[in-house]
Design a protein that fits this description.
The complex is a heterodimer of chains A (445) and B (311). Chain A is an alpha+beta fold and 445 residues long. In chain A, 29% of the residues lie in helices and 20% in strands. Chain A has 13 helices and 17 strands. Chain A has a twelve-stranded mixed β-sheet with strand order 7-2-6-8-9-11-10-15-16-14-13-12. In chain A, strands 3-4-17 form a three-stranded mixed β-sheet. In chain A, helix 2 crosses helix 4 and helix 4 crosses helix 10. Chain B has 311 residues and is of the alpha+beta class. In chain B, strands 1, 2, 3, 4, 5 and 6 form a six-stranded antiparallel β-sheet that branches. In chain B, strands 8-7-10-9 form a four-stranded antiparallel β-sheet. In chain B, helix 8 packs antiparallel against helix 11. The radius of gyration of chain B is 21 Å and the shape is elongated. Classes of the chains: A alpha+beta (445), B alpha+beta (311). Chains A and B meet through helix 1, strand 3 and strand 7 of A and strand 9 and helix 11 of B. Chain A: GO terms for molecular function: GDP-D-glucose phosphorylase activity; guanyl-nucleotide exchange factor activity; hydrolase activity; nucleotide binding. Chain A: InterPro entries: GDPGP, GDPGP1_C, GDPGP1_N.
Amino acid sequence: MLRIKRVPTAVSNFQKEEAEEGGGGCGRNCLQKCCIPGAKLPLYAFKRLNKISGGKDLLNPEDKEPPVAFLDSLLLGEWEDRAQKGLFRYDVTACETKVIPGEYGFIAQLNEGRHLKKRPTEFRVDKVLQPFDGSKFNFTKVGQEEVLFQFEASEDNEIQFFPNAPIDVENSPSVVAINVSPIEYGHVLLIPRILECLPQRIDRDSFLLALYMAAEAGNPYFRLGYNSLGAFATINHLHFQAYYLAVPFPIEKALTRKITTFKGGVVISELSNYPVRGFVFEGGNTMEDLSNAVSDSCICLQENNIPFNVFISDSAKRIFLLPQCYAEKQALGEVSPELLDTQVNPAVWEISGHMVLKRKKDYEEASEANAWRLLAEVSLSEERFQEVKALIFEVISCRDKGNPSVSESLLEEEPDDKPQSLEEVDALNKGSRHPMVSGECLVLH
Amino acid sequence: MEPQRGLLESITNRYSVWVRETLNELPDSFTITDPSISGHPIVFASNGFLKMSGYEMGEVVGKNGRVFQGPKTDRRSVLEIREAIRQEKSLQVSIVNYRRDGRPFWMLFYGLGFRETMIGSCRREVCSDSVVELSRVLALDSDGRELEVEEHCEASDLEKTKAASAMNNILSVLTHYSEFMGRLVCGKRCCLAGMGPLGSSLILSLGRIKQSFVLSDPHLLDMPIVYASDAFLKLTDKGKKDKSSFWNVLHISPVRNASGKIAYYVGVQIDEGCKNHDKNGLSPEMRQHSAVGAVKVAVRSLSMVAGTSES
C-alpha cells in the first residue's frame, strides 16, 4: 500500500482533525438530516443546450435575458458576501501573486497561510477509487452558510433563479460551496448531488454538470478543475473546484497535436511542448458529446487505477485531461528532496500553470525553469503515456461502434506517429498553421 | 485686501468650507471661475497661481480672466477659450498672459467645464456650469525666454500631460467635497480617460462592470475618486428624491493589487428605485457585493504581470 504524508488543506470551517470530531448533536446548521428540514438556499436553474455555442453572444436572440448573471452577479456576489462575513481562513487578495516572466507565463502565488495549523496526514495514493466513508469529513458536514446556491438543470428549459428555494432532499440537489482556503478569488466547489454522498469518481452526469457550470459562467477566466484520488484530491466526496483569475494559464497556451476526431465531432489532441503530457478534448456537435468523450476517458483511467487531473477551460469548450504519477513517485521515494521541500502539491491548478507556493524564498526565486522542473516530475514518461493513450482509445472506440473512421485513423496513426507529429509541431512553431487544423476549426466552430 | 465675501462663498457653499484648504494644498497653478455669476468671475485662485502671477488673492477673486491678458495675447486663442466655455468643452491652448508687474509669459491654458447635479433635492437641478481654469507656467527661464513672446510657443506633451493630471486632481477634490454636500461634480469622462493613474486595460475591465461604483485612491491626497462607472454617473445624474436612502446602501471595501496591498477603495451604490422591480433577482446587497468582487478580480489580475504591479 502506498501512502504519502501531506498537510491537507481545509476546504470547510467544519473540517476538523479526525480526532476532534465528536459525536453528539450537530447544532451547526449543516446539510445532514438534523439540519436540512426547512433550510433554504438560492437556486439557479440552467438551460440545457443542444449545441455548443461559441459563447453567450451566440445564444439564440429569442432567448430572454437571464434573470441573474451567473458569474458576475450570483457567484461573485455570494462569494464576496461570505468574505465580508469572515468565513474564509484568509483574504486571498492579500496574497502576493505575479506572472513569472517567460514564454509560458506561469503564475506564482505566495500563500503562507493556507497550510498553517494543520498536521501532516497520511493519504493513500495507490487507489484511485475508494468507497465513500461517512465517518470522514464530507460536504454534508459543512455549514449551510458555506453553501452559495443550488445548481441544477431547469425543468422548463429557461434559465430560472429563486432567491430562496427549499432544499428538496428527494431531488438530490447539486450545490456550489465556498472553499474556505481559496487559491484565488471566487474559489468554489461544485458538489454534484451532494446528499447522495458519491465518492470522488467521475460519472457522465456529474461531469456534464461541471461543463454546464463552466458554460453558464461564460467567462474564459472562470475555469473548473478536478483531482482524482492519488492526484491530490484530499476529500473522497465527489467535487469539482473552480475560481476566477483573469489571466491565461500556461496550459491554455501550449501547442497541441491532433490525434483524432472522435464520435460526435470531438477532436482529441495531445499537448506538445508542455512539461506534463496530456490530452485536449474540444469540439463536438453537442456539449454532451464532448462531455461523454472526456468522462468516458476518465472512467477508463480510474478503472485502471491511473490518477489524473482534469482542467475545464474556455467556458467548457476545451478540456485538458492529464494522467499523473507524482504521488506514486513521492511514495516510492523517487522525487528529489529539493522539490519535496517546496511542499507544492501538483494538483490540477499547479499542473495547469498556477503555482501556489508556501515559502517566500520559492516565490522570490520562482522561474519558468523551476516550474517546468516540478511539472516534468508530475508527467508520465513518454512510454507510459503511449500505453495510457492506447488504453483510453481502446475503451472509447469500443463505445463508439457507430463510427468506423475512428479505428481507421487510429490504425493509421498508432504505429509510427513520431515523424509526422514533429513536423506538425514545427509547422506550429513557425506560426504557420497546419492546413488540416485550420480546416477542422472552420468545420467545428 | 479681503476678497468679496459673496464670491468666496460661491465655492464653499457648493462644496463645503474645507474645499478651499484642500484646493490650496494642491501644488498646481490654477483658477476656478463661476459662469453662473454675472461677469463670470474667478472664485478661487491657487497659491501656485498667485505666486506665478504676482497677484494677491483679493486682487484676483471677482475679476474676469481677461485681466491677465494684454497686447501680445492672441485674440483667436481668447475666442477659442470663450467658445469652449460656452459649449462646455475642454480646451488646451497656449496663450500669452501678463503678470502683475506687466511682464508677459506664455502659459498653457486648460479649461474644463463641468456640470453639477443636485442630489438630495426634489428636482433635478443644474445649478451651474463652473469652469476650472488651470494654468501652468511653461518651463521658462525666469528672464530669458520671456522676451520671445512674439514667437508662438507650443506646450510640450509633457506639459499637457501634467496639466491634465493636475486637472484630474482638482476635479477629484471637487467631486470628493461635493459628495459630502450631497451633490456631485461629473467631470466629463471623455476628458479624463487615460490621464488618471489607472491604466487603460484596467479602465476597460472596469467598464464592463455594470453596477454603480467609484474607486478612490488612498495614496493620493484626500483619497480622490479616480474612477466612476457609467452606472454611477447615470445614477447620480438622475436626481435623488431622498438623500438618506441613497447613502444607506453605500458599501465601501478595500481593493488590493497583486502585491496584496490596498490599491483603492471601492464604493458601491445601489439605486433604491431598482429594488422593487427586481423581486426575482438578487438582493441589492448581493449586487453590491458582486460589484466589489468584480472590481477586486479586475484590479488584482491586471496588476499581476511583472512590471505593472505596484508595490
